[in-house]
Amino acid sequence: MVERKVDHTALKFNQASIITLNLLGWILNQPALVALVALVMLVGTAVPGAALFQQIYFRVLKPRGWLRPRVLTDNPEPHRFAQGLGGTVLAAGAIALFLGYPVIGWALTWVVIVLAALNLFFGFCAGCFVYYQLSRLGVPGFTVRPIERREVEG
After folding, report:
1. d(C-alpha 145, C-alpha 52), whole Å
2. Nearest CA to 25 among 43, 38, 10?
3. Cα–Cα distance list, 124 to 29, 59, 113, 135, 139 (Å)
4. What tens digit of pLDDT does each residue of 6-26 get?
5. Which of 10, 30, 45, 154 has the greatest number of beta carbons closer than 10 A?
6. What is the reported pTM?
7. Are 51 and 79 in contact (CB under 8 A)?
């Protein structure tokens, strides 16, 4: 089996971007920022090469040495699922905000902020956990099993 690698610094920058922009949206009461982040997350899930926050990391921050890569042996699918799940919750929050349901909209936004922060600061990816539980249960489409993560040199 081929070892698969994931740059966890790219994931951390993605989470920090999600948290920052959603907090800014909440502070400024700007549902459009929530909608933008939801769109970025959903597009990045559907087309990983178009993941805006990760592209900023790979094309700007990493080449300039502003952030250092932390490449681990890992599966990308659970992280992509987590991003899609978060993007879906955030899209529902944005829709609620635009329809005039601010309590629901901001509550859904805060769910995403808190879960992204849990991953950023404590390394627990709730969406990855859900993915692996679905895989364990044999749900179609969730075929990747957990692997032992370890640092990859280079």
Report:
1. 27
2. 38
3. 29, 26, 13, 18, 22
4. 999 999 999 999 999 999 999
5. 10
6. 0.92
7. no
